[in-house]
C-alpha cells in the first residue's frame, strides 16, 4: 500500500462547495493535500511510528471526509470554479475641482488593498501584485502573490494579504508565507485580524473566525449577503452586509445588536467608539459600537465605495463611484468634494493630514488633506502630481510553493543570537514550540504551515508574546542545520 493515493472531491451544484481532499500513504508518512478544485492546494505531512498506524490514520481522515459528502473522483475531470471578482463601475467625477494630489503610482490593475503606517504605504491589486512605497512615493519592494488581493490588513507589526485563492499571506518578511488557509468553499470578501485572530466575511454573508493556529473557532450567517465589511476590537466583531451591520461577541459569536443601514454596506471603517458603514445608497453612517444606534449620516452624491476618518472621527472621508472624494465634519456637514482624476477609490486611509486612496484604475494616490491644501484646491490651485515609476531592478518576492517550502528557507548553522523553535508532532497536527530559554515552554508559536515538518528546527529573529497565550515570529525565518 506504500505510495497509495486516495483522491476525493466535494462539488455542490449550488456552488456552496467545490473542493478536493487527497491522502497519500508512503510507509510511515501520510501526506494530505486539500483546497479548491483546480488549484494546487495546501500540503500537510505527518509521520507515524509504524506503517500500520500511518494507514489507520489515513483511513480515519478519508472516512471523515466521506461522511461529510466527499466522493472518489479523478483529478482534472472537474474544472475549477471562478472566484468572485468584485465588479465595480467608475464614472467620471462630477466634482468641480481637482484634489491636491501629491503623487500617484499606477500598479496596472484595479486595487482594493491598502495599508499605511508610520514607515510605509502598501497597495495590493487584482493581479496579485503588492507594492510598498515610502510616504514620499518611492517604490521600495514588490511581492507577487498567486491570485488577486482582496484586502491588506495589519495586526501590529504583521501585514497580511487576503487573496482570491483562499489563502491569507503573511508579508512581514521577505518571503511571503500562507499564514491562514480559508475553507475552500469560503469566497473571501474582506478580512480583519486582531491579536492573531482572523475574521473573514464572505460573499454569502457569512462570518468565520479562525485562531492563530489556523483552526476554526466559530461562524455565523448574517441576514444579508455580499459582506464587504468586517472590523474587530476587544468588544465585538462588526459585520457589514447587504442588510446592514451586525455585531457579534468575539468569544463564541453571540449576536449583540443589528442595525438596518440605509442601503447595503460596501465598505467599513472603525474608530474607538464607532463603526462607519459606506452604503450603496450614497451615504456613510456612523454607528455606536455599544448599541448599534445610528449617530450621524454623511450624504454623498453617488454610491459609496470606501470611507475613512481622521483620528477620533473629527473628519470623515468618503469615495464614490463617480471618482470623487468627500470630507465631512463629525456632525455630517459636507466640507468639500473634489475629483482625483484616478478612478473611484475602492479603499482609503488617512494619516498625518494625507489621504491615501487605491482606485479602480489601479492607482495608489496620495492626497494632501491639510486645510490649507484643500482651501487652495477649492480655488483651483493644486500641485503638479508626481507620476511615480517603479524601478526596473526592484526585487520581487514570491511565496514558497507548498511542496518545496522547507527547501526555500535559508539555512543557518548556528542560532547567531536568534531564537530556536522546533516543529513537534502532537496527535494529528504539527505544532511549533520554543527551544531557547527565557520563554514560556507551554506556549505554541504562530508559524507558516508550509514549512512545518516534525523534528525540524528554525531560528527566528525574535518572538513576541500575544495576549492569547502564544508567540508570534518577527523577522527572518532560517532553517537550523
Structure in words:
It is globular, with a radius of gyration of 23 Å. It is 6% helix and 49% strand. The model has no long low-confidence stretch (mean pLDDT 87). With 481 residues, the chain is mainly beta. The strands form 9 sheets. Strands 36, 37, 38, 39, 40 and 41 form a 6-stranded mixed beta sheet that branches. A 5-stranded antiparallel beta sheet has the order 4-3-2-1-5, with helices on one face. A 5-stranded mixed beta sheet has the order 31-32-33-6-34, with no helix packed on it. The chain is built from 3 helices and 41 strands.
**What's the gyration radius in Å?**
23 Å
**Number of alpha- plus pi-helical segments:** 3
Report the major sheet. 6 strands, mixed
Report the helical percentage: under 10%
Number of strands: 41
How far from one another are the termini? 33 Å
Shape: globular
**Which regions are unreliable across 5 or more consecutive residues at pLDDT < 50?**
none
Which percent band covers the strand fraction?
over 45%
Oligomeric category: single chain
Mean pLDDT: 87
Secondary-structure content class: mainly beta
Amino acid at each position: 500500500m506504500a505510495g497509495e493515493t486516495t483522491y476525493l472531491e466535494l462539488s455542490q451544484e449550488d456552488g456552496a462547495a467545490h473542493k478536493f481532499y487527497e491522502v497519500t500513504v508512503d510507509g510511515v508518512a501520510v501526506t494530505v493535500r486539500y483546497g479548491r478544485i483546480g488549484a494546487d492546494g495546501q500540503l500537510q505531512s505527518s509521520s507515524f511510528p509504524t506503517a500500520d498506524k500511518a494507514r489507520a490514520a489515513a483511513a480515519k481522515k478519508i472516512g471523515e471526509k466521506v461522511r461529510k459528502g466527499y466522493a472518489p473522483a479523478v483529478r482534472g475531470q472537474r474544472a475549477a470554479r471562478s472566484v468572485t471578482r468584485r465588479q465595480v463601475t467608475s464614472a467620471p467625477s462630477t466634482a468641480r475641482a481637482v484634489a491636491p494630489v501629491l503623487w500617484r503610482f499606477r500598479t496596472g490593475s484595479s486595487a482594493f488593498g491598502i495599508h499605511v503606517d508610520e514607515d510605509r504605504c502598501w497597495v495590493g491589486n487584482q493581479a496579485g501584485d503588492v507594492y510598498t512605497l515610502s510616504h514620499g512615493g518611492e517604490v521600495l519592494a514588490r511581492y507577487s502573490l498567486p491570485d488577486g488581493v482582496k484586502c491588506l490588513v495589519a495586526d501590529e507589526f504583521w501585514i497580511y494579504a487576503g487573496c482570491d485563492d483562499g489563502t491569507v499571506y503573511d508579508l512581514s518578511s521577505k518571503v511571503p508565507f500562507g499564514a491562514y488557509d480559508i475553507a475552500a468553499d469560503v469566497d473571501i470578501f474582506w478580512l480583519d485580524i486582531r491579536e492573531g485572530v482572523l475574521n473573514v466575511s464572505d460573499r454569502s454573508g457569512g462570518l468565520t473566525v479562525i485562531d492563530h493556529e489556523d483552526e476554526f473557532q466559530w461562524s455565523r450567517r448574517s441576514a444579508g449577503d455580499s459582506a464587504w465589511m468586517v472590523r474587530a476590537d476587544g468588544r465585538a466583531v462588526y459585520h457589514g452586509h447587504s442588510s446592514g451591520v451586525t455585531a457579534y461577541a468575539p468569544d463564541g459569536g453571540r449576536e449583540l445588536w443589528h442595525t438596518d443601514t440605509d442601503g447595503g454596506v460596501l465598505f467599513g471603517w472603525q474608530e474607538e467608539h464607532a463603526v462607519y458603514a459606506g452604503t450603496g445608497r450614497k451615504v456613510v453612517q456612523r454607528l455606536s459600537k455599544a448599541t448599534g444606534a445610528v449617530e450621524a449620516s454623511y450624504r454623498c452624491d453617488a454610491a459609496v465605495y470606501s470611507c475613512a476618518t481622521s483620528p477620533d472621527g473629527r473628519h470623515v472621508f468618503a469615495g464614490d463611484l463617480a471618482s470623487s472624494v468627500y470630507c465631512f465634519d463629525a456632525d455630517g456637514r459636507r466640507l468639500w468634494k473634489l475629483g482625483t482624476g484616478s478612478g473611484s477609490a475602492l479603499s482609503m486611509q488617512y494619516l498625518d493630514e494625507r489621504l491615501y486612496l487605491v482606485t479602480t484604475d489601479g492607482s495608489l494616490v496620495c492626497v494632501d488633506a491639510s486645510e490649507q491644501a484643500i482651501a487652495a484646491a477649492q480655488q483651483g490651485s493644486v500641485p503638479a502630481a508626481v507620476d511615480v515609476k517603479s524601478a526596473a531592478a526592484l526585487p520581487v518576492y514570491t511565496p514558497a510553493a507548498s511542496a518545496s517550502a522547507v527547501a526555500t528557507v535559508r539555512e543557518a548553522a548556528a542560532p547567531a543570537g536568534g531564537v530556536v523553535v522546533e516543529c513537534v508532532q502532537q496527535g494529528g497536527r504539527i505544532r511549533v514550540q520554543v527551544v531557547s530559554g527565557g520563554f514560556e515552554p507551554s506556549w505554541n508559536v504562530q508559524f507558516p504551515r508550509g514549512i512545518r515538518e516534525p523534528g525540524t528546527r528554525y531560528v527566528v529573529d525574535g518572538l513576541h508574546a500575544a495576549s492569547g497565550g502564544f508567540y508570534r515570529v518577527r523577522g527572518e525565518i532560517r532553517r537550523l542545520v
